[in-house]
Amino acid sequence: MSKRIDVKDLDIYYGDFHAVKGVSMTIEPRSVTAFIGPSGCGKSTFLRTLNRMHEVIPGARVEGEVLIDGQNLYGKGVDPVDVRRQVGMVFQRPNPFPTMSIKENVLAGVRLNARRISSSAADELTERALRGANLWNEVKDRLDKPGSGLSGGQQQRLCIARAIAIQPEVILMDEPCSALDPISTLAIEDLINDLKSDYTVVIVTHNMQQAARVSDKTGFFNLKATGQPGQLVEFDTTQTIFNNPSQKATEDYISGRFG
Amino acid sequence: MSIQTQTPQTPQGDVQRSRLEDVEGVVLSRVRPTTGRPALLLALGALVLAVVLRLGLDMHVALALVLSFVGYLGAVYAVYRHLGGPRVAVDQVLRALVYFAFVCAIVPLASLLWTVVAQGAGRAFDPSFLNQTMNGVTGLHDQDYAEGVGPFVGGAYHAIVGTLIITGLATLISVPIGLFTAIYLVEYGGRNPLSRWIRFFVDVMTGIPSIVAGLFAFALFVQLFGPRDAKMGIAGAIALSVLMIPTVVRNSEEMLRIVPNELREASLALGVPQWRTIAKVVLPTAASGLASGITLAIARVIGETAPLLVAIGYARGLSLNAFEGPMNTLAVYAYYMFTKPLSPAVREPSLERAWAAALLLVLIVVALNLLARLIAKMFAPKTGR
């Protein structure tokens, strides 16, 4: 259920603006990879290229390759819609659909794609996804209530349940805890640890402790100056990045001496 | 050469921070607590003054009111300046001006509603008025009625039905065009040149005088059917939709634009194609706003008279076929009854009909507005735990 991602010499542009330059990395299956770095350095932009969500922004384009188990996401004839069915995404702010109930939110990926699903299968899928997102016990009695009535942390777990209900190979998380309190953050971090056994998880975070706690590998992004493209400075095991980084910039950032 | 910098002189010795009011040249305005009671008393006084001016000096009502209002402003400023300080006084004066502006806005509206109800209510709910058309009704009937020999005949049944048919057709034409244009502008067009041009022309269309829309529709149908048979209901519907489409586009565009982008991204990230994202996520989320926007656009055109006068002509009897022959609507009916009474000698019955039709039209618009609110409430995203 989880796949390996190879990124080769990826350059990302917004119109004429060169946003991210020359990223190459390999993301192992069944692992958690974290990206850290200052604001505006292109972490989120890079993350969004892994399921072609950056294309939603007009003028965005990439050069280079992203291979998921050897298949190039940017190859000719690859439909972005198919890519996104394989690579799920959780966003910074919880965004359940306000017109739908909790259950409908979980099943949104299936229903919106108009795949046929029997009601028993729908029930089973809802329960499995909500259990997978550690939310089942909290909401099992009110599946028909609107998803917007949940707390922020619950909404974010609902969004994770929605993402895993379509059974993707990879789950991308763009600062999933930045709008949450410490307790909800802990719940999400526990969940990320559980998800690791089934999925490849890639997470962008501003919280370095979080990166240290949840990830197996860490990538540090930086940019030389404003207006310059962001770059992947260092990519290694989390242990190495936090204890013995090879680059001065990484060490400065980790220890808080940065800018 | 050395660079000399002049350091600003710091006050010697006085390191302790002084309070702002102790600094020379600073005057703080102090506010003393006040109540609203003096303002109320002064307002009563101003009212009394107005009555005195009107009755005692035989002034015009409006002049008396304005004079006493100006007097009130001066008095309230003086009193509150004494009681609470200049800031409170200015607050009270501006408060009075805001209320005055509110009254100025509401008075014509209330007066209009009152006049329509007072003049029209007597006839508008008469079953015979609601059930009859003007077919075969002549000035002689009106004269008989005025002399007390005959019953009141002739009604607006055909005009009510015509209003509903023509506005309904206009809605059927405008809503798909307007809504799809808005979807293109928001979801696909972005800021490309085509959508900039569309926006520009929609804005221009918003300002088209309604008579021009009517002439356009009439000219179009003359081309198609010849001058003799050009007047028909559908021509009116097309004239109205020319007026309605820009409103629908603009309203819907605003409504679609406020749907959070995060919802679109959430849907796209689930591997949902864009058209399904629009149909299943964006439109339902915006549904309440779209529905009320469309209803308001309908309310805006339902009372149009000029374009319909040109495009649909004037029918005395009931015509259910919008594709053949003249029809009638409430607005046109009221216009004709007012300008061309059946019996020039006895205008009263015709004026009564005009007012009754006006009242019915107002009621339909009010009902549409209530309906818009109801729909908005029905579609509104559910909350609750």
UniProtKB/TrEMBL annotation, chain A:
Signal peptide: none annotated. It holds the Pfam family ABC_tran. SUPFAM superfamilies: P-loop containing nucleoside triphosphate hydrolases (SSF52540). PROSITE patterns: ABC_TRANSPORTER_1 (PS00211), ABC_TRANSPORTER_2 (PS50893). It comes from the Bacteria. Residues 5-248 form the ABC transporter domain. Keywords: ATP-binding, Nucleotide-binding, Translocase, Transport. InterPro entries: AAA+_ATPase, ABC_transporter-like_ATP-bd, ABC_transporter-like_CS, P-loop_NTPase, PstB-like. GO terms for molecular function: ATP binding. NCBIfam families: 3a0107s01c2. This is Phosphate import ATP-binding protein PstB. It comes from Ornithinimicrobium pekingense.
TrEMBL record, chain B:
Part of the binding-protein-dependent transport system for phosphate; probably responsible for the translocation of the substrate across the membrane. The chain crosses the membrane at residues 39-57, 63-84, 96-117, 159-186, 198-226, 232-249, 354-376. It is found in: Cell membrane. It comes from the Bacteria. Residues 160-372 form the ABC transmembrane type-1 domain. CDD domains: TM_PBP2. This is Phosphate transport system permease protein PstA. Keywords: Cell membrane, Membrane, Phosphate transport, Transmembrane, Transmembrane helix, Transport. Belongs to the binding-protein-dependent transport system permease family. CysTW subfamily. It comes from Ornithinimicrobium pekingense. The keyword DNA-binding does not apply. It is a multi-pass membrane protein.
